[in-house]
Amino acid sequence: MLSVTSSFTPDSELDLLFSPDLISHEVKSQLHADVHVRPLASTDYRRGHLQVLSILTKTEDPGESAWVAHFNSLRALPRTYYTIVMVDKTTDLIAGVGTVFIERKFQRGLSCVGHIEDIAVDPKQQGKKLGLRIIQALINLSENSGAYKTILNCSDKNIPFYEKCGFEKKENEMARYTPERTHSPKL
C-alpha cells in the first residue's frame, strides 16, 4: 500500500535500521540530486519497499504490522543486517533497495563475510546508476564491518553488471527449496 507524499522525509525524522553515517559519503555524493540513500526505515512499508522487491520474485504482502515486526527483528541483531534504500525525493517513495548481511565465521581468525541480497531498482528509475550505487554502498558496509570477502548470487544475465561492479564469477550456487508447509516452522 503506497502513500504518495510530495515532501521528502529527512533521516532525522525516521526510525532507521542503522545509523545513516555508516553509508559511504562517496556514494552519496555520486547520486542524482533527486535521489537520497539511507538505511531502511520502519515506515518504508508505506513507501513501497515490497513493491520494489517484487520485481525480483513473488513478494507476498504480510501487512504493515507484520512488516514492522520483521523490521524490528532485524534491528534487534545489531551489526548484522544492513538494508539500504534509494528514495526518490520528489515522491518520498523507494526507488531502489539492497541488503548486505554479515555472517560471522570461525575461519580466517574469526572473520566475517558479507552476503549481498535483494538488489532491486524500480523500472521507472533505471538508467540513473542506482543499482551500481547500491552495490558500492553495500560493499563499503561489508568491508567496514571487517568482511574478508563480499559475495552474492545472481542470474546469468546479470553477471556482466556484477563484473562491472568488481565481482568475479567463482564456483557454483546450489539451492534446495522447502516444500510448502502446512504448519509453522518449529525454530
Helix content range: 25-40%
Sheet with the most strands, sense and barrel status: 5 strands, mixed
* Alpha-carbon Rg, integer: 17 Å
Number of helices: 6
> Which shape, going by the Cα principal axes?
globular
Order of helices and strands: HEHHEEHEHEH
Please give the number of β-strands: 5
Give the strand order of the largest sheet, numbering strands 1, 2, ... along the chain: 1-2-3-4-5
| Strand residue content | 15-25%
Give the mean pLDDT: 94
Q: Ends: how far apart? A: 30 Å
Q: Unreliable segments (pLDDT under 50, ≥5 consecutive)?
A: none
Structural class: alpha+beta
Describe what you observe in this structure.
With 187 residues, the chain is of the alpha+beta class. The chain is 25% helix and 22% strand. The chain is built from 6 helices and 5 strands; from the N terminus they run H-E-H-H-E-E-H-E-H-E-H. It has a 5-stranded mixed sheet with strand order 1-2-3-4-5. A hairpin with a 4-residue loop joins strand 2 (81-88) and strand 3. The longest helix has 15 residues, at 130-144. The protein is globular, with a radius of gyration of 17 Å. The model has no long low-confidence stretch (mean pLDDT 94).
Tag the structure with descriptive keywords.
about 190 residues, 6 helices, single chain
Q: In a few lines, what is going on in this structure?
A:
This protein has 187 residues and is an alpha+beta fold.
Please render the helix and strand layout as text.
Blueprint: H1 25-29, E1 35-39, H2 49-53, H3 64-75, E2 81-88, E3 93-104, H4 107-110, E4 112-121, H5 130-144, E5 147-152, H6 159-164
